[in-house]
């Protein structure tokens, strides 16, 4: 995994653990800072996949990397974050590259 992803993921995990220990103020729910980070990472990863359309081998490597990131999150008990990561990738691909989304069955 890249150092950028590892650093971002550690930031997400630390922020989640800190925010879970803080009392809730029952305000209107928004996407939290960690969720915004994972959305940004997922959008960048999806864009990378779109640019790899010309090479099946490169695209396959990127898709494996995306699933590895998802599994890493799940292995660390961050199922909701992993779901958000995959949903963001699927949404980004569907809106920016219908051809790739269709090819992947999204």
Description:
The protein is an all-alpha fold. Helix content is 78%, strand content 0%. It is built from 5 helices and no strands. 14% of the residues are buried.
Shape: globular
Q: What summary fits the major beta sheet?
A: none
Uncertain segments are 17-30
Report the total helices.
5
Strand content: under 5%
Mean pLDDT, as a whole number? 77
Rounded radius of gyration (Å) = 15 Å
Taking the alpha carbons of the first and last residues, their distance comes to 25 Å
**Number of E-state strands:** 0
Name the features.
78% helix, 106 residues, mainly alpha
In short:
The chain is mostly helical and 106 residues long. It is 78% helix and 0% strand. The two termini are 25 Å apart.
Write the layout of secondary structure elements.
Layout: H1 3-21, H2 33-51, H3 56-75, H4 79-96, H5 98-104
Helix pairs in contact: 1-2, 2-3, 2-4, 3-4, 4-5
């Amino acid at each position: 995994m890249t150092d950028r992803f590892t650093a971002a993921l550690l930031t997400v995990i630390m922020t989640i653990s800190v925010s879970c220990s803080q009392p809730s103020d029952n305000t209107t729910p928004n996407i939290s800072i960690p969720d915004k980070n994972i959305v940004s990472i997922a959008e960048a990863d999806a864009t990378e996949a779109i640019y790899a359309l010309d090479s099946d081998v490169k695209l396959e490597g990127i898709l494996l990397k995306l699933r590895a990131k998802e599994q890493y999150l799940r292995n660390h008990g961050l199922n909701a974050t992993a779901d958000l990561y995959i949903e963001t990738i699927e949404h980004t691909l569907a809106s920016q590259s219908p051809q790739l989304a269709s090819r992947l069955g999204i």
